[in-house]
Write a structure and sequence with these properties.
336 residues; alpha/beta; TIM Barrel; 12 helices; binds iron/sulfur cluster
Length: 336
């Protein structure tokens, strides 16, 4: 059975189970490793040694747990996923079960894309500025040029989006990054930097961030190829500047760390279920034992993977068109 059928079937099961009030995640993220070949100032991960990583068989067990629970989308990140041993085999396992995406810094993309192209449905390449500013923030000279070459290769074959983190150093770059997305004929996704305690503090000043968010909202409304919905920008602006909170549903997104443990309640608040790996626990029981209501008004982060699913509503037709119909159309047009 192809992954389209698998995912469709799971969606029906999820809707039926959801009627009983059970919380079931739709999206999963998996950090394959912490090791990275870049040195981004705001990133805590490259500073950590890798724990013993999962074997291929353990990756499969993790994916089976997620699929059995009802997950439809699996996104891989790191560190730099292309540095992971058996990366193509891991992606193939995922592609047999899920819509599969990868976030990469693009350094190895040009030379290694052909090994994995059949198993990725959507690729995100991190770009934090155009030219030197990107190299400065990513801590390695030449990283912009390498990423650009990789994007040019990959975007011929699969949907590619730039993934851009707004920090104190690049709030004035957002429109240039959108121009670069247009130049490369790809989309762009924006995140606001979160100040991890183990990395440099780089979140933007409140005033400059507001200007950047308003600029992005205007660009979105005028048709710029920005992945986030206009509701995303409106919700962040409303929450952080106007005191109107959005309702976080972190249970829609599940994260698995490089050791195979479930991160609870979310990636940012970052606690664990203990030392057991996902296939060693009763996942539905553990997931539904969390007091999710406690997090509804958190609004601490603006991570797209949490905020967008939390905002999604079948009664918002514009959102249904943008998030479901357009994405499937984009996937299909790259598939043929
Ligand atoms: S490329 Fe990603 S994982 Fe690597 S240092 Fe930068 S933010 Fe961290
Ligand atoms: S808003 Fe709070 S609960 Fe929701 S994902 Fe962000 S940090 Fe987690």
């Amino acid at each position: 059975m192809g992954h389209f059928e698998n995912v469709a079937l799971r969606r029906v099961k999820r809707r039926i189970k959801g009627l009983s009030g059970e919380k079931i995640p739709v999206i999963a993220g998996h950090k394959l490793l912490f090791t990275c070949n870049l040195r981004c100032h705001m990133c805590p991960f490259w500073r950590r040694p890798d724990p013993p990583l999962l074997t291929l068989e353990e990756e499969r067990k993790m994916m089976d747990s997620l699929a059995d629970f009802g997950v439809s989308f699996l996104g891989f990140e790191g560190g730099e996923p292309f540095l992971r041993k058996n990366f193509a085999e891991i992606l193939k396992l995922s592609h047999d079960r899920f819509f599969t995406s990868v976030v990469s810094n693009g350094w190895m993309l040009k030379d290694h894309f052909r090994d994995v192209r059949d198993y990725i449905d959507y690729l995100f390449v991190s770009i934090d500025g155009v030219g030197e500013i990107h190299d400065k923030l990513r801590g390695v000279e030449g990283s912009f040029e390498r990423a650009k070459q990789g994007i040019a290769v990959a975007s011929q074959e699969i949907p590619v989006s730039l993934s851009s983190t707004i920090t104190s150093e690049n709030t004035d770059q957002v429109d240039k990054i959108v121009d670069f997305a247009n130049e490369m004929n790809v989309t762009v996704s924006f995140q606001v930097a979160y100040d991890y305690s183990t990395a440099e503090k780089m979140s933007p000043s409140s005033v400059k961030l507001k200007d950047a968010l308003i600029k992005l909202l205007d660009l979105k409304k005028s048709g710029a190829p920005i992945v986030e919905t206009k509701e995303y920008f409106e919700s962040v602006i409303n929450s952080w500047y106007n005191g109107i909170s959005w309702k976080c549903k972190p249970w829609l997104t599940i994260n698995i760390d490089p050791e195979g443990r479930v991160v609870l309640p979310c990636y940012v608040l970052n606690e664990y279920t203990g030392s057991k790996r996902i296939w060693e626990i009763d996942l539905p029981k553990v997931w539904n034992a969390v007091h999710w209501k406690d997090y509804e008004s958190c609004n601490k982060c603006a991570l797209t993977c949490y905020l967008e699913p939390s905002l999604f509503s079948w009664s918002n037709l514009g959102m249904v068109k943008e998030r479901i119909i357009d994405n499937i159309a984009s996937y299909l047009t790259h598939e043929v």
